[in-house]
Amino acid sequence: MRIALVTETFLPRVDGVTNTLCRLLEHLALRGYETLLFAPAGAPPSYARTPIIALDGWRFAPYPEFKLISPFAPIAEPMRVFAPDVVHVLNPITLGAAAIWHARRMRIPVVASYHTDVPGFMARWGYRTLGKLFGHYLRWVHNMADLNLCPSTVTLEALRKQGYRNLRVWGRGVDTALFNPQKRSAEMRARLSNGDVEAPLLLFVGRLSHEKRVDWIRDVLDALPQTRLAVVGDGPARPALERVFAGASAIFTGALRGEALAAAYASADIFVFPAPNETLGNVVLEAMASALPVVAPRAGGLLDHAVDGETAVLFDPEDRTALVKSVARLIEDPALARRLGQAGWARVQTRTWSVVLDKLLEEYERMRRSDHPRSAMSPQWNV
């Protein structure tokens, strides 16, 4: 089976979309699929035996690290030569919209996956009207696809209410062999706590962008001076965040990967994730696999796994004081923190990447076998 994949973001940029796509490409290679990837310029020539066609773009002003690729980019001929059985577009905006249009002209089934609540981010950046218009555009793009995949049931229901069609859940997996409590390291704990290993150690992992609201954790450190914070990750907001946390008991490690990242999770006490617009939050699954209790807002796709009082303590997403109280609750009640951490660990043990990605391959096979007539102007169908 031949799969053409199209993404608006890829290596060297690291984010949730890139991490998921890398896992998918590795799995497709393992299962013997033939693949081709269209990605922004700067990507490597190949990944996991997948040739990559890199395309030039221009920087998106509100988010300079993100490149928009022209919808007139030369993708039709290489797609025709490759002759895919299915086209999968990830987070389609401009390049993804063009790929959907070409695929429908060629009568190739199209799977689109929704990863990022960009309209929600834009509203939080102060571009509420523009975000609303962009939301209408994204709905139009996705509704050209034969199938739209969402990372969580919460996201699916939100998109259904907005008029998205052909929706199914494609969840995310976690590498439980890599991320687990046995990776706890005295050396890593000393590094993350700046040597104060007996202090309660809070951990944030993720891309350092403004919508993640990492700055909210400064309130926690001010209210609970006995705590320490490790911020793992990198991104455009890092310089501003380092200024916000100046003088506080916090360190910035930059991006960690592999065993170092696993040790960071396992060596902390509480995972704090203030981001309110996540469609899932892969890092939450990794924290749970490491038996960390989670503190997160009562919002977004992470609610599929971060269950209040079971695996997490959830707070009102617009209340900074509630975030402080949630962290304080876990520090004051270590037994509760341990219980939530163990419940989170148990919850994710069956959510391996192999299981999750094999279900996606079943969707590909179903789309290939479908005899639904496809063209750029064909009517939509509902799942």
Structure description:
The chain is an alpha/beta fold and 383 residues long. It is built from 14 helices and 16 strands. Strand 1, helix 1 and strand 2 form a beta-alpha-beta unit. Helix 4 runs antiparallel to helix 5 and helix 11 packs across helix 13.
Write the topology of this structure.
Blueprint: E1 2-7, H1 16-30, E2 34-40, E3 46-47, E4 50-55, E5 57-60, E6 63-69, H2 76-82, E7 86-90, H3 95-105, E8 110-113, H4 118-124, H5 128-142, E9 147-150, H6 153-161, E10 167-169, H7 186-192, E11 201-205, H8 217-223, E12 228-232, H9 238-244, E13 250-254, H10 258-267, E14 270-272, H11 282-289, E15 294-297, E16 312-315, H12 320-332, H13 334-348, H14 353-369
Parallel strand pairs: 1-2, 1-7, 2-4, 7-8, 8-9, 9-10, 11-12, 11-14, 12-13, 14-15, 15-16
Antiparallel strand pairs: 3-4, 5-6
Describe, in short, the structure shown.
This protein has 383 residues and is an alpha/beta fold.
Helix content: 25-40%
- Beta strand %: 15-25%
Number of helices: 14
Number of strands: 16
Key terms for this structure?
Rossmann fold; alpha/beta; 16 strands; disordered C terminus; 383 residues
